[in-house]
Specification:
It is a single chain. By secondary structure, this protein is α/β, with parallel strands linked by helices. It folds into two domains: 6-281, no CATH class; 385-436, no CATH class. 23% of the residues lie in helices and 38% in strands. The strands form two sheets. Strands 1, 4, 5, 7, 8, 10, 12, 14, 16, 18 and 20 form an eleven-stranded mixed sheet that branches. The protein has a ten-stranded mixed sheet with strand order 3-2-6-9-11-13-15-17-19-21, covered by helices on one side.
């Protein structure tokens, strides 16, 4: 029996103590340490208040629509992968439908023999517990959504666990698809990637709705790049246009390692994405990229934090948004340079392409520098399509709508061209086209 007050039950919506107890019952086969982490997370979720307008971390956000009422933890589904509009060569695939593994394609024997692991969190909790304990949601949330991150830990049912051993190269991408189906369904996708010393891999997350129903998605991913590792991570979010979405990214980059992450935002009525990148040893490099197509009344809320904790590190952030109709975007980014992080080289740029007089773009770039020998730049721009470029295309017989689309793709290419994998580049471009 829940002893929570009516006010507490109201702010926690459908995720009551009874619902959490029912979820724990489905996790009976999980190790004790995993269940204990979930209990602690639920206690934190229940204790924390919902965001308020006075919270700086939620400045410009539409707080009034963040309701947790009327949703239910998803029931298992046998849906298969639906990626006909997002297809390219993959070395292995996992598909989760309503929080449950629904299909998988195995790794080639040569990679499995080298120790590469592509499996589920449920299997990793038993077979690779030390790695999971060390990296699963190991970095504290610092960007405002602590309550929702705790909710994710409490209710995550399964997800992807990817491990690339020292010195191993995985040439083609590993693809993880997360499907949501059914009105009011709550899903908690998770992908954890551990790239050991001097390894190399590309991992792709695809978040997609199987129907047009309203879903609640509360997902996370953990990326760890050991010394000298090269990790590329791409996430394409294509939830239904009535979904409420949260996604938390945590990236740790060690000595001489490189992590490139690209997040494509297309779906959801309201989507908040928080990305934390920590450069923990000399030579670390984090490249943080994002593309957003905002249309209708969509709101995309992007919060980033680049923390330089060691000398001679570099980060480069480029977020581009194209806004149509009455859509809104919020970008709030902060570069933090610790006192010992001399020779830091950090960039942060948010660029907004306004395709409507009624769209709204809010940008809050920032710096917090505690070292004296650094190079840091940050900035934000909002502009409309160049009328001369538009006129040139129209003079060649291209309709205005088609001309604007071509110019929007030109605006996006600066980001897409940073991907080395050309088939993945092309697949992302085709996925973006589905929005026009």
């Amino acid at each position: 029996m829940s002893t929570a007050s009516p006010a507490t039950q109201s702010q926690n919506g459908s995720f009551t103590a009874e619902v959490f107890a029912a979820h724990l019952a489905t996790q009976a086969a999980a190790p004790a340490w995993w269940l204990e982490r979930k209990r602690a997370a639920y206690a934190q979720f229940a204790a924390l208040p919902m965001p308020a307008r006075t919270n700086e971390g939620w400045r410009f956000s539409n707080i009034g629509t963040l309701s947790l009422d009327g949703v239910a933890v998803a029931t298992p589904s046998n849906l298969k992968s639906q990626i006909s509009d997002f297809k390219f060569k993959a070395v292995a695939e996992l598909t989760f439908a309503n929080n449950t593994l629904s299909s998988r394609t195995a790794l080639p024997a040569d990679l499995a023999a080298k120790g590469v692991i592509v499996t589920t969190l449920a299997e990793a909790a038993v077979k690779h517990a030390d790695l999971l304990k060390a990296h699963f949601m190991a970095q504290p949330q610092k960007l405002g959504s602590e309550k929702f991150a705790a909710l994710h830990i409490a209710f995550v049912g399964d997800g992807a666990f990817i491990y690339v051993p020292k010195g191993v190269t995985v040439t083609d991408p590993i693809v993880v698809t997360h499907l949501a189906s059914g009105a009011g369904t709550a899903v908690f996708p998770h992908t954890l990637v551990v790239a050991e010393e001097n390894s190399r891999a590309t991992v792709v997350d695809y978040f997609v709705s199987a129907d047009a129903s309203a879903h609640f998605a509360c997902g996370a991913n953990d990326l760890y790049a050991g010394h000298g590792a090269q990790l590329t991570y791409v996430a394409a979010q294509n939830w239904s246009p009535t979904t409420l979405s949260f996604q938390f990214n945590s990236t740790v980059v060690r000595r001489d390692a490189r992590v490139q992450s690209l997040n494509l935002h297309l779906g959801a009525r309201q989507a908040r994405h928080e990305s934390l990148s920590q450069l923990q040893a000399p030579g670390a490099f984090s490249e943080m990229l994002a593309l957003t197509v905002a249309m209708g009344a969509q709101e995309f809320d992007q919060r980033t934090l680049q923390i330089h904790q060691a000398p001679n590190t570099k980060s480069d952030l480029l977020y581009k948004n194209a806004l149509r109709d009455t859509a809104r975007t919020i970008f709030s980014g902060l570069i933090v340079v610790d006192p010992d992080a001399q020779k830091t080289d950090a960039y942060q740029s948010n660029r907004n392409l306004m395709l409507s007089d009624d769209a709204e773009a809010n940008s809050l770039p920032g710096l917090e520098i505690q070292a004296n020998d650094v190079r840091c730049t940050h900035g934000a721009t909002s502009s409309r399509i160049d009328p001369e470029q538009e006129f040139y295309l129209q003079s060649r017989g291209i309709a205005k709508a088609a001309a604007d689309e071509l110019l929007t793709f030109g605006f996006f290419e600066e980001v897409l061209n940073r991907l080395e994998n050309e088939p993945l580049h092309d697949a992302l471009r085709e996925l973006i086209k589905t929005k026009f």
